[in-house]
Design brief:
3 helices, alpha/beta, single chain, two-stranded parallel sheet, 5-stranded mixed sheet
Length: about 150
C-alpha cells in the first residue's frame, strides 16, 4: 500500500492519462509508418519505435500498479505534534547553523527542487515520530548530520 497526498495522486493520474491517450498512440503511429517502409530487419525507425513502445507500456503498467495500491491521506486527520507523512518540517543543521525546510512525501511525490523528500530517505526516516526541539543524528553519504527540529506544520 502506498500513501500519498491528493495532489500527488492527481498528478500521477494526469501523467498516466497523458501516456495512454497521447504518447502511446503517437508511438503506435510511428510503428505503423516505419512498417510501411519495407524490410523490418534493417529498419532502425521501426526498432526504435518498438523500444519506445516497450518503455511506455512498462511505465504505464508501473503507474497503474502504484495507483491501484495508492491510498490518499486526509490531511485534516493528521496531527502536527510529531513528524509524519505530509509534515512540513523546519530544522537547523547544527553543524553549519543552516536552516532547511522539507515536506515529507511519498517516494512518488519526492522532488528536492520543490522541497519534498521521500519518506524512505535517511533524513525523513530519522525525523519520523520526533517532536519540536528534538535533535537527531542522520548518517548521509556526506557524513553525519546533526539536526534540530524547529517547527512542524501540515
Amino acid at each position: 500500500m502506498e500513501y500519498m497526498s491528493q495532489e500527488g495522486y492527481d498528478k500521477l493520474v494526469a501523467e498516466l492519462k497523458q501516456l495512454e491517450t497521447v504518447e502511446l498512440p503517437q508511438v503506435r503511429d510511428a510503428i505503423a509508418e516505419a512498417r510501411d517502409k519495407g524490410d523490418l530487419s534493417e529498419n532502425f525507425e521501426y526498432h526504435a519505435a518498438k523500444r519506445e513502445q516497450g518503455r511506455l507500456l512498462g511505465r504505464i503498467r508501473f503507474m497503474q500498479r502504484v495507483l491501484e495500491h495508492a491510498r490518499v491521506i486526509d490531511k485534516s486527520r493528521l496531527g502536527s505534534e510529531s513528524v509524519g507523512l505530509l509534515s512540513r518540517v523546519e530544522m537547523t543543521n547544527l553543524n553549519t547553523n543552516a536552516r532547511m525546510t522539507y515536506t515529507i512525501a511519498s517516494p512518488h511525490e519526492a522532488n528536492l527542487r520543490e522541497g519534498k523528500i521521500s519518506i524512505k530517505s535517511p533524513i525523513a526516516e530519522a525525523l519520523l515520530g520526533k517532536k519540536v526541539g528534538d535533535e537527531v543524528e542522520v548518517r548521509v553519504p556526506a557524513g553525519l548530520l546533526k539536526l534540530r527540529i524547529e517547527s512542524i506544520q501540515l
